[in-house]
Design a protein that fits this description.
Adenine-n6-DNA-methyltransferase TaqI, Chain A, domain 2; 5-stranded mixed sheet; 21% strand; alpha+beta; 4-stranded antiparallel sheet
Length: 540
């Protein structure tokens, strides 16, 4: 599909090839226009108002066989067919830029001043979006008498950036209405091109120079080093211009002006579409995760038992581990969430009375699922400090905070950082298939993001990370769950801080999560992987 820039270039190219508007015989020919221009130029030269070109005036014409010739002054004509870039209508002609202008000159280097009275147009003032003095500097008022009158810019002057990588060839049209100072000159990096209003329409000339015929070869026309390309004044003066009759120039400009808002609108729609296209895979993945945690991604199977039965086994095992002092009992006692015969959800912590938590339940889940606090099915341990100077190219594998959300997306497949044995032994360790979550970030999207250890190594992890060691759960399901939009909203609510955002391990423990039976967890993981693979092929 054609983008807005390509469309704009196609229109400009059609314009200067005589294909944007129809020709009208009643408007005369460009040869007749050039004859009038030559007569007026001769008079201006005679009156010393403009300078005669070196080598004499250029006269370009084509013979009966369609070959193009150029005669300069009194020299013999030479065939210039090889220089003609494309065909033009019969009533058009080719002309050198210097033959249809009154002034082509580089600006000069000014003596600058902090007194904001006499602006200097530099390359940054000339953008494809238009001319602006917002970034202009100013001439020392004591030096303005050194500027000849012809150097003072006039409305309609073409300002052509003539040096520099990335700026070369950019052009704008000077508009005195945009200059509150009433006076301006160009600096030495800008070439000023001036014509007479009844010779050539400066917006037509701008359309030619802004189009692909010029811009696509601008660096080939320049000289100098790669970092300091330059358009020589002689190159600018000798540019070949496809010239229509004057009235047709105006009609071309009107048509371009008519189409430009449509191109701009097309560009905005295209930008929106590109943005949506770029966001579509991520949006689809989030939708898949949301469907997964609501029990809508795969069908339920009664033979797989219930999540209540799964949690009962987990509670029994956790009680034994607490008794053996292998894990710590949570403050306030273990959380037990259940629903009554009327479908209301209750939570009991330790020996306290149950309280209704219907207001905390965000959506319905299948009957064989249940809700639980993350801390009721897992142990969340904050890591310990692993300083940068302790990280080596080889040694004992470790994961640091910055790597978790810049390098790993949901999975830790290999470990690029290492530390020494002393630090490793003192650190908290992550076993294969256990989870890590971030506790610190520059925004609330970074914090709480999870990744699963898919290496076969035991990893040390830093203090801005929390290890999640779970009981009788599918690690891939939990990882997808913790990265889902549903849990993301809980991360946002639990975060604190402005410039750097934090979340505590206890806040992560309090996350409310939907739990399916264990076998269904694996089926959900398989389906997510299958759908994500299909999403990955979108617009490739």
């Amino acid at each position: 599909m054609m983008d807005a820039k390509t469309l704009r270039n196609a229109i400009l190219q059609a314009a200067v090839r005589g294909k944007l508007v129809e020709q009208d015989e009643s408007e005369g020919t460009a040869d007749e226009l050039l004859e009038r221009i030559r007569t007026e130029r001769a008079e201006l030269i005679k009156q010393k108002k403009i300078k005669a070109p070196r080598g004499g005036e250029s006269h370009i014409y084509h013979d009966q066989d369609g070959h193009w010739y150029e005669q300069k002054g009194k020299t013999d004509p030479i065939c210039i067919d090889k220089d003609i870039p494309f065909d033009i209508p019969d009533n058009w002609t080719w002309a050198r830029l210097k033959s249809i202008t009154t002034y082509i000159q580089r600006g000069k280097s000014p003596k600058y001043s902090l007194i904001e009275k006499y602006p200097v147009v530099a390359q940054k003032c000339n953008q494809w979006s238009g001319f602006s003095l917002e970034k202009a500097k100013f001439v020392d008022p004591e030096t303005i008498e050194k500027y000849d009158e012809e150097r003072i810019l006039l409305t309609g002057d073409l300002l052509w950036n003539s040096t520099g990588l990335g700026t070369l060839g950019r052009m704008a049209v000077y508009d005195s209405n945009l200059n509150p100072y009433g006076w301006a000159v160009a600096d030495s990096h800008v070439t000023v091109i001036r014509t007479r209003s009844h010779w050539s329409n400066y917006w037509y000339l701008f359309s030619y120079f802004a189009g692909p015929s010029v811009q696509n070869v601008i660096e080939e026309q320049s000289s100098g080093t790669t970092k300091q390309k330059e358009l020589a004044l002689s190159t600018v003066q000798d540019y070949l211009i496809p010239l229509p009759p004057f009235a047709e120039q105006q009609r071309i400009v009107n048509k371009i002006n008519e189409l430009t808002p449509l191109i701009d609108d097309y560009g905005k729609v295209q930008e929106l579409r590109n943005k949506l296209d770029a966001e579509l895979p991520d949006t689809l993945r989030k939708s898949v995760l949301q469907a997964a945690v609501q029990g809508k991604l795969v069908e339920q199977d009664e033979s797989e038992g219930t999540a209540d039965e799964l949690l009962e086994r987990i509670r029994a095992e956790r009680a034994e581990l607490i008794k053996q002092k292998k894990i710590k009992a949570p403050r306030g006692g273990e959380s037990h969430i259940y629903h009554d015969q009327d479908g209301h959800w209750y939570e009991q912590k330790g020996k306290t009375d149950p309280i209704c938590i219907d207001k905390d339940i965000p959506f319905d889940i299948p009957d064989n699922w249940t809700w639980a606090r993350l801390g009721a099915i897992a142990v969340i341990e904050r890591g310990s400090g692993i300083k940068r100077d302790q990280v080596m190219e080889s040694g004992y594998p470790c994961i640091r905070y910055g790597e978790l959300y810049t390098t790993y997306t949901g999975m830790i497949r290999e470990c690029s950082s290492h530390t020494n044995k002393e630090v490793f032994d003192k650190s908290h360790h992550l076993l294969p298939n256990e989870l890590l979550a971030t506790l610190t970030g520059e925004n609330d999207i970074d914090i709480g993001r999870a990744a699963i250890n898919k290496t076969d190594k035991i990893l040390a992890y830093g203090s801005d990370l929390a290890g999640i060691k779970f009981h009788h759960q599918n690690g891939d399901y939990l990882c997808n769950l913790l990265n889902s939009p549903f849990v993301n909203s809980q991360r946002t609510s639990a975060a604190n801080g402005k410039i750097i955002v934090h979340i505590s391990a206890s806040a992560i423990s309090a996350f409310l999560i939907p739990i399916p039976p264990l076998a269904e967890q694996q089926r959900i993981v398989n389906k997510i992987a299958e759908v994500n693979e299909q999403i990955g092929t979108i617009r490739q």
